[in-house]
TrEMBL record:
Organism, scientific name: Roseiarcus fermentans
Covered range of the whole protein: 1 to 277 of 1003
Stretches assigned to the FAD-binding FR-type domain: 1-96
Protein name: Sulfide dehydrogenase (Flavoprotein) subunit SudA /sulfide dehydrogenase (Flavoprotein) subunit SudB
Highest rank taxon of the organism: Bacteria
Signal sequence extent: none
Amino acid sequence: MYSIVARERLSETTFLWEIHAPDVAASALPGHFVMLRLYDGGERIPLTVADYDRERGTVTIVVQALGKTTREMRDRYRQGDAFSDFVGPLGQPQRTDRGETGPGHMVFVGGGLGVAPVFPQLRAFKQAGAHTTAIMGFRTRDLVFWEEKFRALADELIICTDDGSYGEPGQVTGALARMLKRQKPDEVIAIGPLPMMRACVETTRAFGVKTMVSLNTIMVDGTGMCGSCRVTVGGEIKFACVDGPDFDGHQVDFVELIARQKRFKPEEEVANKSFDH
Ligand code: FES
């Protein structure tokens, strides 16, 4: 069993768990993900590592309560509670080495919940000597989280809200496009909802700036056997769980991916309704 050593409410729908999992914490790197299952027979869900503390032996995940399992996590589990499975770290970590010239100027774009997994990548690149710009996007001020964590590490921080209630008004792509017109960074890493990552990729394509995205596809086993997480990258079939989850966004077939993400919608709605009763 794995215990929740800290739990923090970030907004009405988002929350953080810090989980005691020394083996996972010992080898977790930015870009890795974990598979979590609450109990026997429960759904297995992939979650990107938001942080880890090797000394405390803990891994932090940030979750949005959208489906049955994530709502169960929000409503039925408290600090000190335990759950069944926490497998990881899985996937390929993000590489921070960028040859003899170093990582140069890196831009980290996080949209909503994607702000959490972009954080360890920002920290790793900062430690590798990069000049860092962070662009964080939220729908509204109430959803903003980890501003101070980002401010402590980013050389430049831009916060955007869709409704203009905090920071710059508008979406992250607007801030990204304005920044690209001012200066050309070496690389962009964008993590968030699929439409947001797709929009970031289309924004940077015109400027010829490499853009990595983290694909949180529907996963079942998380080890490359079921095919559920299949995605086409550069015309080749890849599996997000073992080949990713980070890929060159300019090569990703987002049209196919967005269609595939909808294939269990009816089942998800039934499961969600069952939790309402
Ligand atoms: Fe099964 Fe990736 S989740 S192959």
